[in-house]
Amino acid sequence: MIKEAKFISSCDNYLKAPAANKPEYAFIGRSNVGKSSLINMLTNQKKLAKTSSTPGKTQLINYFEVNDTWYLVDLPGYGFAKASKEMRGKWDLMVWNYLTSRESLCCVFLLIDIRLEAQKSDLQMITNLGENGIPFAIVFTKADKLKPNEMMRNVALYKQILKQNWEELPIMFITSAESMRGKDDLLGYIESINNG
Ligand code: GTP
Ligand code: MG
Known about the structure:
By secondary structure, the protein is α/β, with parallel strands linked by helices. The chain has helices spanning 35-43, 85-101, 120-131, 148-163, 183-195; strands at 5-11, 24-29, 61-66, 70-74, 105-113, 136-141, 172-174. It is globular. It starts with a strand and ends with a helix. The chain binds guanosine-5'-triphosphate and magnesium ion. The site of magnesium ion has 5 residues, from α1.
């Protein structure tokens, strides 16, 4: 249960992040997939993390503290077409350095738009996370946009693709920031890690 969630700080380098003395959970994924919206949904706040219908809104590593005991971390998205190559390279490096070096990172939530077929950039991220032993879960977003049967079909297709390369599939969640679907599952998962 989230009693309190508050913004702590933003930084452009994980070395400038708050002390790594609390468990933290990061949200990554393509620009506009709904990372910031999901953080707001989980924390019951409309404007805690800044969202936008235009991709490329989140540009820094943003820390939100929950119940004074753990952190949610909002990150810039990848694949934002309008950003210059230089900017993209900078964001990708900032995020990747964070993912590979932050000691208190407990789990990365990789967000995937449930409406789309598997995207190269997401599959590449899954490979990178797996190869680097970074614990992650897959979170399908925008479930409110599909009918249940279309949703289940897309999730099954995604599993099929992952099975070509992985023996074991990561844990998966189906969510919607609109309908609040998946909220309890996701918070329960975080709690189980915090208590583990
Ligand atoms: P960047 O910060 O640019 O990387 O994007 P982001 O991944 O943080 O996405 P953001 O949360 O800003 O949401 C992008 C757009 O998708 C906004 O217009 C949101 O309202 C919309 N959106 C996010 N989640 C959902 C959802 O579950 N359902 C629907 N229908 N729209 C959503
Ligand atoms: Mg964002």
